C-alpha cells in the first residue's frame, strides 16, 4: 500500500512540474513581430510585408511588421539584438549593411554573434536607374557625363554606410568614376528623390525599383549582378554595360534572424514555417510579380552565408573610409 501511495505522489508531482513547461512550449500563442531596420517602401520592407501576408498558416500566428529605421539600419538591428529571446521578436538581417555598421562605427551594440540565423529569404541586387524623362539612355551616356563632371553628378541611395553606398564606392573604384553619393533613409525615399529630380540617378535595390520601372517612371541602365535579372531581362549587367568586371558586393542578402538564445524547438518551428512559406504558390507568384528573387537557405546554410558575406565586406570596407 505504501508503494502505491509513493507512486501516486510521484505521478502527481511529475504532472505539476511538467504541465507549465508544456504550456510554455505551446508556441506561438500571440503575434510575432518582424523588425525591419529601414523605412517603409524599401526592399527590406517590401519582402517583410509580403511574408507577413502569407506566413500565418505555417507560423500558426500573425506576423506584424514594425519599421525601426534610422542610422542606416543600426537602430533596428540594435533593437533586434537586445529583444527578448522568446521567439516573438524576429527581424530581417540585411547583409552587407549590418557588417558595415559594425566595421565602420564606434560603440555598436551588436555583432553577428548576437543573432541566431533562421532562414535566408532573398538575394536583391542593386541597379543604377535614372528618371524616365532623363537624357541618359544608356550606362555609357551616364558614365561619360560623370567623367566630364567629376564629383558633381548626384546619385541617391540608401545610406550612409549601407550596402548601396558600398556598391557606389565599388563602382567608382572599378571604373575610376567620381560621383556625388547622396544618402537617403531607404530605397523608397531614394526613388522619390529621383522622381522629383533632386538627383540625376539612383542606386536602388531591384525589388524596390521594379514597380517604378514597370510603370515607366524610371529607366534602369545596368544591374550589379553576374547575370541578367529574370524580371528585367532587357537590362544589361554592369559588366555588359561597362566592359569591366565590377563586383556585386552591394547585393542585399536578406534573411530572418532572432536574438541569440531562442530555444532550439522554437527555432526549428520558425525554420519550418519559412521553408514552407517559400514553397507557397501564392507567395512565390507575388514575389515574382515584384521582381523578388527568392534564395531560401536553412539556418545552418544562412549562418555560413552571413559569415562569408562578412569576410567579403572586410575586403572592400576601406573604400568607405
From TrEMBL:
Protein name: ABC transporter substrate-binding protein
Family of this protein: Belongs to the UPF0065 (bug) family.
Record-linked Gene3D superfamilies: Bordetella uptake gene, domain 1, Periplasmic binding protein-like II
Alphabetic keyword roster: Signal
Signal sequence residues: 1-24
Transmembrane regions: none
Amino acid at each position: 500500500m505504501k508503494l502505491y501511495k509513493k507512486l501516486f505522489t510521484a505521478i502527481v508531482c511529475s504532472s505539476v512540474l511538467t504541465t507549465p513547461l508544456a504550456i510554455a512550449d505551446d508556441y506561438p500563442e500571440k503575434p510575432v513581430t518582424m523588425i525591419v531596420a529601414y523605412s517603409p517602401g524599401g526592399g527590406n520592407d517590401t519582402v517583410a510585408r509580403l511574408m507577413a501576408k502569407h506566413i500565418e498558416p505555417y507560423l500558426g500566428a500573425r506576423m506584424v511588421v514594425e519599421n525601426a529605421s534610422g542610422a542606416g539600419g543600426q537602430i533596428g538591428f540594435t533593437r533586434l539584438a537586445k529583444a527578448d529571446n522568446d521567439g516573438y521578436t524576429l527581424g530581417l538581417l540585411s547583409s552587407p549593411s549590418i557588417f558595415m555598421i559594425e566595421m565602420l562605427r564606434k560603440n555598436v551594440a551588436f555583432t553577428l554573434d548576437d543573432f541566431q540565423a533562421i532562414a535566408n529569404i532573398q538575394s536583391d541586387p542593386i541597379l543604377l536607374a535614372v528618371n524616365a524623362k532623363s537624357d541618359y539612355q544608356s550606362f555609357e551616356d551616364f558614365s561619360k557625363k560623370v567623367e566630364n563632371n567629376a564629383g558633381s553628378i548626384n546619385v541617391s541611395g540608401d545610406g550612409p554606410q549601407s550596402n548601396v553606398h558600398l556598391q557606389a564606392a565599388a563602382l567608382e573604384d572599378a571604373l575610376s568614376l567620381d560621383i556625388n553619393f547622396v544618402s537617403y533613409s531607404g530605397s523608397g525615399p531614394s526613388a522619390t528623390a529621383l522622381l522629383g529630380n533632386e538627383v540625376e540617378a539612383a542606386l536602388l535595390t531591384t525589388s524596390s525599383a521594379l514597380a517604378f520601372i514597370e510603370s515607366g517612371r524610371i529607366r534602369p541602365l545596368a544591374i550589379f549582378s553576374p547575370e541578367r535579372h529574370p524580371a528585367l531581362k532587357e537590362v544589361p549587367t554592369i559588366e555588359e554595360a561597362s566592359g569591366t568586371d565590377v563586383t556585386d558586393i552591394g547585393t542585399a542578402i536578406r534573411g530572418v534572424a532572432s536574438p541569440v538564445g531562442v530555444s532550439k524547438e522554437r527555432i526549428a518551428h520558425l525554420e519550418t514555417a519559412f521553408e514552407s512559406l517559400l514553397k507557397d504558390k501564392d507567395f512565390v507568384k507575388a514575389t515574382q510579380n515584384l521582381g523578388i528573387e527568392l534564395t531560401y537557405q536553412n539556418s545552418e546554410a544562412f549562418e555560413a552565408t552571413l559569415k562569408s558575406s562578412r569576410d567579403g565586406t572586410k575586403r572592400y570596407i576601406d573604400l568607405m573610409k
